[in-house]
Specification:
By secondary structure, the chain is α/β, with parallel strands linked by helices. It contains 9 helices and 19 strands. A 7-stranded mixed beta sheet has the order 3-2-1-4-9-6-10. The longest helix is centred in the first third of the chain and has 19 residues.
Length: 393
């Protein structure tokens, strides 16, 4: 789908938020991430705030990290006036008894509980409690990790795409992801930054566009909830909730996804790269930041939007009694004559099987920690698709 260029009148609020180190309690790790976050703040401070928009940047900081607050406040004071006045630190408390997340849970649930469903909505509601949203015709919500970077025109580009979505869907909430981005891999020898088409949309490069009529419910539209994979299946699922989900294919690469060996998720992301457009080398992160800040903002583009082709999905969730529920999009992904089987694996040991049938869901009981579910799709006696997923919790 191509949206025609059209202006949208009315003041909008561009709201960015991040959570600095969340439940991390190792002082060495916090210090390392704080150093990176100060560079992130500098890239935020280099943003052009587009005409017709106000700017908010909310840093969510848990009270157990108050010792780091003075350095964050000093960094805020170094920002320009508009960015400084729009930036604030929101202090929050961890639950006295912790988050009750099992040690076998996904590392993001352990280290970043306030990015998970339920808590992320409550965190935004608390941070936004004093904001006068009534003066805005729309709200654009962007969430980002605490170590990624922006080119100066990133917010201007998001604002222009938001305007196009508000023209085409004036009464509906839209969620958008940007297909093109920069992937910066940090090694002891330096930084290699590739301009790529990336088939997973990263926080900072995805956002909600919320018209005024939906702003009272803005807390429910967390950008953390926008899927990384925006394919046809995801678009249909979001449409079922009344949200217009789009993938912008022709955006300028104004977002820099930083990849380091110490990061929580898998280091190599090459499997997510569909095309590489260019590559640059930098000696260190400060040189990369200098390059970003000196780069001119690209003019706004008329967005071309189309989701990726439907992809076979497999999800697993563990209930309180230990039962693992498995679901797929088998029914919408494959046609008549296809069958699917599920294996419950513990390492190389097969614990249980659900043999080939037309049922795209399954359930396993008595599943020990560390299990994996594997699915196999068969057609005419041949396995044509397979997928594996670790069971967390």
């Amino acid at each position: 789908m191509t949206l025609q260029s059209s202006s949208h009148s009315g003041l909008k609020l561009l709201w960015i938020d991040t959570v600095l180190c969340d439940a991390e309690d190792d002082p060495d790790i916090i210090e390392r991430y704080l150093q990176r976050f100060l560079l992130t703040m500098e890239s935020i401070g280099a943003q052009t705030i587009p005409d017709g928009a106000d700017f908010r940047f909310t840093v969510n900081l848990s009270r157990d990290k108050l010792a780091y607050l003075p350095r964050i406040e000093q960094a805020i004071c170094r920002l320009g006036a508009a960015h400084r006045h729009g930036t604030r630190v929101h202090l929050y408390d961890h639950p006295p008894g912790g988050y009750g997340v099992p040690a076998s849970s996904h590392i993001d649930s352990i280290k970043n509980p306030n990015k998970q469903p339920g808590r992320r909505e409550a965190l935004f509601a608390a941070a936004a409690a004093g904001e006068n949203f009534g003066r805005y015709e729309s709200l654009v919500r962007i969430s980002m990790d605490d170590d990624d970077l922006y080119f100066p025109g990133h917010l201007s580009q998001i604002s222009a795409f938001a305007d196009a979505l508000l023209v085409s869907h004036p009464e509906s909430v839209s969620a958008a992801g940007l297909y093109r981005q920069n992937l910066a891999t940090v090694t002891p020898a330096g930084i290699s930054m590739r301009d790529v088409d990336f088939n997973r949309v990263i926080p900072g490069n995805k956002f909600f566009v919320i018209p005024a009529s939906h702003v009272p419910n803005a807390a429910r539209y967390s950008p953390w909830a926008i899927p990384e994979l925006i394919d046809e299946d995801a678009v249909e699922r979001f449409a079922g909730t009344g949200v217009n989900l789009v993938l912008v294919r022709n955006n300028a690469p104004t977002f820099v996804y930083m990849r380091r060996a110490a990061n929580l998720s898998l280091q190599s992301k090459d499997a997510c790269i569909d095309n590489t457009h260019a590559e640059q080398e930098f000696s260190n992160e400060e040189d990369l930041l200098d390059h970003l800040r000196s780069s001119p903002a690209e003019p706004a583009r008329v967005p071309v939007m189309a989701p990726l082709p439907r992809e076979f999905r497999l999800t697993c969730s563990r209930a309180h009694d230990g039962t693992v529920n498995v679901s797929t999009n088998f029914d919408t992904m494959f046609g008549p004559g296809h069958r699917i089987a599920f294996y419950l694996m513990h390492g190389a040991e097969r614990l249980d099987v659900r043999w080939y049938s037309g049922d795209g869901s399954a359930q396993f009981t008595h599943t020990p920690p560390g299990c994996t579910v594997r699915a196999f799709v068969q057609y005419d006696g041949e396995i044509i698709a397979r997928k594996g997923r670790r069971v967390f919790g």
